[in-house]
Amino acid sequence: MPRTVASGFMSRLGSFLFALAVVALLAACSSDAGDSAVSSESASSAPAAIIAVPTVLILDASGSMTIEDAPGSRIDAARIAAVGLIDSFPGDAMVGLVTYGIGTGSSDDEKVAGCQDVKSLVGLGRLDRDRVRGEIDALRPSGYTPISLAMRRAASMLPTDGGNQAIVLVSDGEDTCGVPPCEVARELRLQHPGLSISTVGFKTDGTASEQLNCVATTTDGLFVQAANSRQLAARLLATQDTKKARESLSTKGLAGIDLGLTVGEVKRGHSDFPDVGLSGRVVVVWRDCDFTFQDGVLDSIAPHGGGRTIDGIAPGTPIAKAIELYGDPLETVDNKDGTYNLTLTADEARRAGYKFLVKDYTESKGSIAGTIATIALCRCLPPAPSRAPDPCAGVATGCAQVAEVDVDGDGTYDRVAVIATANSGKGNPTASVTVKVATAREVEEILIKVEGPLRSSSDCPGKRDQHSEPCAYDGAFLISRPRGADLVVTKCVCAGGVPTHTVITWTGNHLSILASPGDRNWPTVNYEGSYEWLSCERPGEVTESRLSPTSYAGMPNPAGGIRKSERFTYADGRWTSVGAESVPDLSADIPDFWKTLVAFKCTDQARR
């Protein structure tokens, strides 16, 4: 049984020694309604009205923001989050917008220019929502990450009257130009005593997170990390109420007391924290919170008032909203009293989870409903699954890992790769495409025949070479299936051949080939006025789409185009059409059109 240690905090509440930081932590661990109260969703999770100070938003538009793992591209997630922040400001707010990375590429030859590539898109002034939204929407990421220079530019836009003011920085990486951002932040704080810089690390870790955390800590700002688009939107809003954010359960702790700290480390920051033994499991009741230590190391934090996450999830919130933010439950426990405990991911790297006590729990066809009663933060994620060897190891060229799938349900992520090779000889080159699956026990390969010649890049004339790369496989699309994920491998050729698609599936842990959907050869590209592609828009389905636009200089032009799509499912050994649509498509300009469609893949199914 865990031992319980209670502090004498309440008897000392009136002491002058407990200054602002103590008051903040008390607020973090208490509830105005009392320990047993469960507030309504509107009362618990609605954001407080923002009292805006002059604020400059810095948005990262470096090349890495094109990565599609948000899901969708990182820049799209940043756009949505930034617009949400702008919409939260009152109409008389003083707001500016700065970005970096839109004026150069990210090659070595462009570094000198890229490290000066900072743009003031909107000068500090009374908020013009339409203009700011337009500038955000127009961002096209491509270059370097000069964070320090961007902070200097943002600070130069702010008043010099010593009043409260803020910079909010969203970045997915570290400064790539060699100027330490933390040192610059200290300098700016001296020049602007009322300045705070809050930072949001989008999918950051290691040095990038350390840099962003140091910037925020040095300037009394807030540092938060986000792993997906919904978290990014919520945590960008959190930067506007740093007091409330510090009173909430972050992904790593509460009010500067983090999971994994030893009791000695906690006491160095909070001298009145009770002594704790270094063995066994001990629960410390301190400032209306339960701090549980395992062998002297902080293992969980449970506020008596029910708790609140930094994203606004609180008692009374539907559990479905928490699942939208933190992903599917990793563990569900029936307490046999009408309640359930659900563990969701807070920080995978730290193995930290949010443990929700849920009332009125129901689950039907994969949808979970219920109301959150209490929240705790704990080091309670299940062990990370092991990973199989790299299937591309020893392959010199033409190998790309495309997925990690637990093929046989043994808790090991089996790693899937596609290998494309072209063999030169007399006449046209020939090609083979191999799919390799590396499991913990073996590596299995399956050969896909290529009907007709595969041509090298030098054999593919025409303007299309400026926009797409000839390939032995044009993409690998994952289709959600009950037993894991199937793979669609596209074999594309240039002039003189018809691209086709092969669908690979697993039976147990062995590979086999399915017939092409609709028993057809699905063409991928038709350069004379249309473009076709495959996608995985819904679990269990594959979608074939054709964009039929007008033409421009011999190339498709999406302006005024029509997108026709047909969806297929696979069952009983055959593909069946389950629906079609035809809609106007005005979604892209010429450069983005090619880049987007050639790279289209089913990223949301990449890990099952």
TrEMBL record:
Q: Which domain of life is it from?
A: Bacteria
Q: Give the VWFA domain ranges.
A: 54-257
Does the record's keyword annotation contain Translocase? no
Q: Which UniProt keywords apply?
A: Signal
Q: Do you know which PROSITE patterns this protein is assigned to?
A: PROKAR_LIPOPROTEIN (PS51257), VWFA (PS50234)
Listed InterPro entries: CLCR, VWF_A, vWFA_dom_sf
Looking up PANTHER family in the UniProt record yields: CALCIUM-ACTIVATED CHLORIDE CHANNEL REGULATOR (PTHR10579), ZINC FINGER (C3HC4-TYPE RING FINGER) FAMILY PROTEIN (PTHR10579:SF43)
Name of this chain's protein: VWA domain-containing protein
Q: Which organism is it from?
A: Antrihabitans stalactiti
